[in-house]
Design brief:
Radius of gyration: 21 Å
Distance between the termini: 47 Å
Number of strands: 2
Length: 127
């Protein structure tokens, strides 16, 4: 019973809760960017041209699309790297001494490290 509780709490705090929080905060970010671009479109006549540099600024929808693409990449990366560890913990409940599980644990731990390391690179390349 204690081990089962450990596995459930570990999965909750390791992947489910962070995924929900990541999704919620990123959706709020996209909403605020959309609201700010709508505000600028309505109340600023110089929104589409930048007179200081004499260049055209990107269209507001382009900026929203870039942010949306970055958010989707981050969430997909999180899911691909974190979910295998949670699934392995549930499998470990039933097959404790299976030798392949130890290899899979190493791979899932490596994926968690990759998630942490590649996050900044993902943001840079998707924007």
């Amino acid at each position: 019973m204690t081990f089962f509780l450990f596995i459930v709490l570990y999965s909750l705090f390791q992947s489910i809760l962070p995924l929900l929080m990541l999704s919620y905060f990123n959706v709020e970010l996209i909403r605020s960017i959309h609201a700010s671009s709508n505000f600028l479109k309505r109340f600023t006549s110089l929104y589409s041209s930048n007179t200081r540099y004499g260049q055209e600024t990107p269209h507001p929808r382009y900026r929203e699309g870039t942010v949306t693409r970055s958010v989707i990449c981050l969430i997909a990366l999180f899911i691909l790297c974190q979910v295998p560890a949670s699934i392995l913990h549930y499998i470990f409940m039933f097959y404790r001494n299976h030798p392949i599980l130890y290899i899979c644990y190493d791979i899932s731990n490596f994926l968690i490290l990759v998630n942490s390391a590649v996050r900044n690179v993902t943001i840079e390349f998707s924007s």
